[in-house]
Amino acid sequence: MSRDTGLLAKTLPLAPPLIAFALLCVPSTATAKPTLDVDPLGINAEGNLEWLVSVSSGDEGSIAIELGFGFENSSLVEATLLNPSIFIEVLDGFIITLPANNPFTGGITEGLVVTGDSAFASFGSRLVPAAPPTPFLLFESEGPMGTLKWGDDATAPFGGGGDRIFGGDGEAFSFSGSRTVVPEPATAGLCSMC
């Protein structure tokens, strides 16, 4: 004996496999997020700490960079642009620059500008691979320890800003943070006996 539950069962037709496949393969229009890596490299021959800043586009393409950097518990000795053939565009003998609002100077600057223990980098790029990250800047800070800050962590005392990397479609991604290096206790103990 069958029992009527009052519910109607409906059968939906299945989509043809080709249509289902096409729906799964719709390309995304979102830009992959660029990456920023800040790594201490160690102590150089002068006894100073070196820092490597690398970037990637997230997906192979051009990027624009407006980033501020600042040092604490150490002084900035030198700042160097790495891979200028990628980050400096020359067209018909003229350098194509990316002017940006520099939070450390309060004005418009371009390229790599050092102000005391701070640096502001404003560059466009040619094609930057998605991976591995491309070396961008090399900093040298005084002594074997210190903190390197970037983005709003570095620029907040100056009103903020200087924390963006723009993807190929112009979408802005914010980057802020810091890295601190302190001598290991065994090394610190050895230095105190000098």
Q: How would you explain this protein's 3D organization?
A:
Helix content is 12%, strand content 42%. It has 4 helices and 15 strands. The longest helix is centred in the first third of the chain and has 8 residues, at 17-24. Mean pLDDT is 81; it is low at 1-29 and 188-194.
Order of helices and strands: HEEEEHEEEEEEEEHEEEH
Tally of individual helices: 4
Outline type: globular
Helix fraction by DSSP (H/I, runs of at least 4): 10-25%
Quaternary status? single chain
Number of distinct beta strands: 15
Keywords:
4-stranded antiparallel sheet; mainly beta; disordered N terminus; 194 residues; 7-stranded antiparallel sheet; 4 helices; disordered C terminus
Task: Give the secondary structure arrangement, pairings included.
Layout lengths: L16 H8 L10 E9 L5 E8 L7 E9 L3 E6 L2 H4 L1 E3 L2 E3 L3 E3 L4 E3 L1 E5 L2 E7 L9 E8 L4 E5 L1 H4 L7 E4 L5 E3 L2 E5 L3 H8 L2
Q: TL;DR?
A:
By secondary structure, the protein is mainly beta.
